[in-house]
Amino acid sequence: MSLTLTDDDIIHIASLLNIEPALLDAIRKTEAPNGGFDSKGRLIILPEKHKIYQYMSAKERHIALRKNLVTKRWSKKTQYKGFGSYRKHTGFAGDRRWGFVERVSQVNKYATYMGTSFGLMQIMGFNYRLCGYNTVFDMVSDFETGEKQQLFAAVRFIKSKGKIDVFVDRDFRGIAAFYNGTGQIEYYASILEQHYRASNLPKCTSTPERRDMRLQALRFGSRGVRVKVLQERFNELGYICDVDGIFGERLEDQVVLFQRHNALTTDGVVGPKTQAALETAEPIPTNETPISDVLTKNPIVNSGVGQVALGVGSGGAGIGTVVSKQPEPITLEGTHNMLDLSVKISDKTEQLIDVIPKLASFALTYSLVLVSIALIGFGAWTIYRTIKNHRLRRWFG
Question: CA 158, CA 51: separation in Å to the nearest integer?
Fold first, then answer.
């Protein structure tokens, strides 16, 4: 079995996602320019010290930190220090990186593999389930059989994350955000586009009309003024998100929630339909009625008010939320019961108000007693020390 991926393999695997073979070729060249294996036949890897740290126990973290094997958080200065570059010397870099993995594995092998990216598409170990494996070690073992298996795993990973649209529409910025995060979108997007244009594999994308429409939409990874305006609009409607001009996971969650509320396709993408709905949408209704008003209103209109006042309204909504129900038949007994409940709550409140001054008085009185005892003790100790010092001076002159 050949370890190296062929053009036919790329074309076949790209068809599983219905994306351009040239694009899949560009992604794998961006992630691992020299292939999935180094010059000595070992998997290309990149240990992430802060990720390894996350999967260790407290005792293991202490040991690993003391040996300078992990970091608590990502740091550009120390993250990859001493790893070497696969672009320049694959064998040397492989020695350094696999040597590091062996040292950290002595502390915790599982954590080491979970916090390391492997192979052609540089998939992190903690994504093993999304790639279709039972354990991270099963994933690494399968990756070692060839680049084709590594690319198949990447296809399963992409499908499981539900981000196929950015690949189908050749959205370089969206792909960069999906694969590398929102930190360096422009950098990775430009490299992706360069590799795409240089690829000799087929370029057969979706229709230009659909692609242009999709690229005008805002989605995960988008940045700029349009995203900032979108975030401000969501805040106006009651969907809370940061106004930073970055379309991240928080905003994507709010978009999906808005789409669900408005019977739209819940894809997390702000396209023409979602944008139109945003323009005409009304803010999420919130209850601003004081609880005192709730207790005195018609119990038929606000049925269930007893539960609300006790903080056990529908879904555990709490004391500030009114649970409205359909009007029920008016009965004298029901009205009296509701009024009795309101009176009882009022009585309990008055009793609590009466108790508070008594508690304050009790605390003040006994705090003064404690202070007095402390002063007496300090005075006695001072007298004792004075007498003792006087005797010592008399005896020893």
Answer: 21
Q: Which pLDDT tens digit goes with each residue over 294-317?
A: 445 544 444 443 343 334 333 343
| pLDDT on residue 315 | 39
Query: Cα 85 to the chain's mean position, in Å?
Result: 30
Residue 95 to residue 100: CA distance in whole angstroms? 8
Question: How far apart are the two ends of the chain, measured CA to CA in Å?
Answer: 100
Q: Identify the residue with better confidence: 265 or 348.
A: 265
Do the Cβ atoms of 4 and 145 come closer than 8 Å? no
Using a pLDDT cut of 90, give the percent of the chain over it.
31
Helices and strands counted in the chain (H then E): 17, 3
Cα separation, 96 vs 45, in Å, equals 10
Both tokens of residue 356? 């508070």
Largest Cα separation within the chain, whole Å, is: 108
How many CA within 13 A on the CB side of residue 354? 6
CA 60 vs CA 55, 72, 88, 117, 394: distances in Å: 9, 13, 34, 21, 62
Structure tokens at 9: 């393999």
243 burial type by CB count under 10 A (0-12 exposed, 13-18 middle, 19+ buried) = middle
**Eight-state DSSP code of residue 285:** P
Q: What Cα–Cα distance (Å) separates residue 331 from each residue in 296, 336, 343?
A: 17, 9, 19
| Average of per-residue pLDDT values in the chain | 78
Distance CA 99, CA 78 (A): 17
CB 23 within 8 A of CB 31: no
pLDDT higher for 243 or 100? 100
Could you give the dihedral angle defined by the CA atoms of residues 319, 324, 330 and 332, in that order, rounded to the nearest 10 degrees? 0
The one-letter amino acid code at 100 reads F
Summarised one tens digit per residue, pLDDT across range 76-118 is: 778 888 898 888 888 899 999 999 999 999 999 999 999 999 9
